[in-house]
Amino acid sequence: MESDVYKKRCIVLAVFLILSVILALPMKNSLVAENNGIKDAIEFVELHEEEEVKKETSLSKEEALETLNKIKSYYSFVDQYSEGVIYTGLVIGMFGILNGFMLYFIGTNFLLKKALPDLKRWMSILIRIIILVIFIPFLYSVISIIGLILSIPNLIYQIYKYIKVKKKENKDDIIE
Predict the structure, then answer these.
(1) What span, in angstroms and rounded, lies between the C-alpha atoms of 15 and 9?
(2) Is residue 176 part of a domain?
(3) What's the predicted TM-score (pTM) here?
(4) 175 found inside a domain
(5) Closest CA to 22 of 101, 98, 76
């Protein structure tokens, strides 16, 4: 039944959301730990003499502080926002990437069916994976952006199509 396709896609999206939540937690903890490590390094450089800093880092005190402050500027959002906001952003980002890969497979499946209608399913999957592996450096950012932008519309569309098709299938059922 056609509704099973949309039901499976909704389940896959739910699994992606759960995976995103699971994967985002260690990423958030890693960001916070790296930010704290940079703060500790800056504190070490500020509290110690020029000779100790030169011995530990092989840089002058000013160069070490300048380098550490540049690195710290990349992590400035960790101090600006609460951990909940950072975690939510990471979840949305992970979900967007996973959703983008799902949309890639749906889109390439559609294109392959148009171009080669008698292509076997396993061959279609193999071709899509090979294309993805070959072009991953180029496709990764595109897939991520598409996944982030289309996450909510794709989810709504899958649920809508599932409900619509299921109603049509139920209406066509005749029990005698």
Answers:
(1) 10
(2) no
(3) 0.68
(4) no
(5) 98
